[in-house]
Amino acid sequence: xxxxxxxxxxxxxxxxxxxTPAFGCTEPIAIxxxxxxxxxxxxxxxxKVVIEASGNIIKNVKSVIVPNTGRLKGIPAAAxxxxxxxxxxxxxxxxxxxxxVQREQIREYLEQACFVVKALESGDKLDVRITVSxxxxxxxxxxxxxxxxxxxxxKNGEVLLDREGExxxxxxxxxxxSGLSIEKIITFAREAEISDVQEILxxxxxxxxxxAEEGIKHDWGANVGSVLLRTCGTDVKTRAKAxxxxxxDARMSGCELPVVINxxxxxxxxxxxxPVIVYAKELHSxxxxxxxxxxxxxxxxxxxxxxxxxxxxxxGAVCAGxxxxxxIAWLQGGRxxxxxxxxxxxxxxxxxxxxxxxxxSCAGKIASSVDAGILGYSMFQEGQQxxxxxxxVSQGVENTIRNxxxxxxxxxxxxxEEIIRIMTHCD
Length: 427
Fold this sequence. Notes:
CATH architecture of the largest domain: Orthogonal Bundle
CATH topology of the largest domain: 2-methylcitrate dehydratase PrpD
Radius of gyration: 21 Å
Shape: globular
Number of domains: 2
Number of helices: 16
Distance between the termini: 54 Å
Structural class: alpha+beta
Helix content: 55-70%
């Protein structure tokens, strides 16, 4: 297979759009960004803040620490950080620069202003609408469909931006993800000019490995990575799982280091890259070999998530961990057949893991998913595989991926609603 010039450019654009830096768990950061934009539109410090959010946003903000706030949690804390200290122009790095004085101001503002949190009963699974008011003035900002996608801005009833009806388009996106396939991804990974992707991947390697090292060295969350190393040894397989888990533990617990995300998620960005980096170090792979393996892992994760959507009851770590296994297979000489079997085998093992929000246990799910990705390749090396009609496995890797789309986007809708009811104590 050969890629057309248009297909090649599209793959590069996908990577540019998806592999962006973010500071903090992307759901609370989306709220902070929305709130910062609302304050900017209002033109003064709001006296009242009404935050309406979809169930999946509530689920993913409930238990995670908002960075640069002095370990505050929750929707009001994320909004207050954006209002007091946010720079809307920095988008998902909106609260990357917060002074000690501003941290104290965030706490004071939470006590002084009126915050109201409401669940959005209709709309997108990723949906935030913030209304701010002061001195008779009012501003409204809504983000939907992706974490930085502002679809509506109002001030005093005047509509300044309206993109709410553009259901299929996300602001700023130019690349078409519908043409992704494992065969095309492998072709792109083989043929890509490294200069076209090096800057993107260098940033991912630098940022994501740094937070993984921080997670191993210090006390973050449930310390899943450290537990793995102490109890399971230090072989490359264990290190790959441990480092990815450690990066998640640090991120979920408010570590003030940025990461490069994948499919809108920092945890997925860490999971899809760090295990591949660990294996590349162990195998003494060249820089070029690592870049091409990361192209495989990143794009396969994007392919999997594209049909599920950014938020679902289907755990995104599964997509990223299985994709990491494919990148590891590439590093060891695997190509289309090896990668396809690795993906099908690993998906068959861990596709039942559910997402119950962003929190320390994400690290454990990441470790399990990376383990499945590695096992999926080991099975293929040993001549073993899961066959069509084994559960959700179908003949051909793309058919199995379509089954995952159905499971994540449709089959788990009621599961998602029940998880949200459990987490919000709604009987």
